[in-house]
Design brief:
Blueprint (H helix, E strand, L loop, with lengths): L3 E13 L5 E8 L2 E8 L1 E4 L6 H13 L14 E8 L2 E13 L13 H6 E7 L1 H6 L4 E2 L3 H9 L6
Parallel strand pairs: 1-6, 3-8
Antiparallel strand pairs: 1-4, 2-3, 2-7, 5-6
């Protein structure tokens, strides 16, 4: 089956709690539901938005956490990835921003689009040590390195 090409510029929000754990979503590709994976909150920029504004909007839409764009730090890296999801062959530039949300942040899928609700299974707060030791697939694959930069106050990428 030929995939529909899609080019996207995305902001990835990395919400961190008081223990430096990052919130990840657990989901599936609708054409490969037997291969779940963990991924960061985020999505494509909309017309007139900056990347960090997109990160703030996506944080609310995907997990129900409100944060203003000026609360984010970063960027902590930009990378271009290619992958298939559903009927699409996606080329995506993704830029990573962090935001402190505290331990009282309540996660909700209420504001997700229906396709996101249908393909998002769960959420989990991950520590750096858990990311480095898990056998479960997560994206981006260098997330532990990005998290290390954020929590150590390292250089922005």
């Amino acid at each position: 089956m030929t995939k529909i090409p899609l080019r996207r510029f995305t902001a990835r929000a990395l919400p961190l709690d008081d223990q430096d754990r990052v919130l990840l979503l657990h989901g599936i590709d609708p054409v490969r539901p037997d291969r779940p994976f963990w991924f960061t909150v985020g999505g494509a920029m909309e017309d007139g938005e900056t990347l960090v504004e997109a990160a703030a909007r996506e944080l609310f839409e995907e997990v129900g956490i409100r944060a203003h764009a000026d609360e984010f730090s970063g960027p902590y890296g930009t990378v271009t990835v290619t992958f298939e999801w559903g009927e699409y062959a996606i080329t995506q530039d993704q830029t990573f921003y962090a935001v402190r949300v505290g331990e009282t942040a309540s996660v909700s899928f209420e504001h997700m689009e229906q396709i996101e609700k249908d393909t998002t299974l769960a959420f989990r707060w991950w520590s750096l040590e858990e990311l480095e030791s898990t056998e479960e697939p997560y994206f981006p694959e260098d997330l532990a390195g990005i998290l290390r930069k954020i929590t150590a106050g390292g250089e922005r990428g």
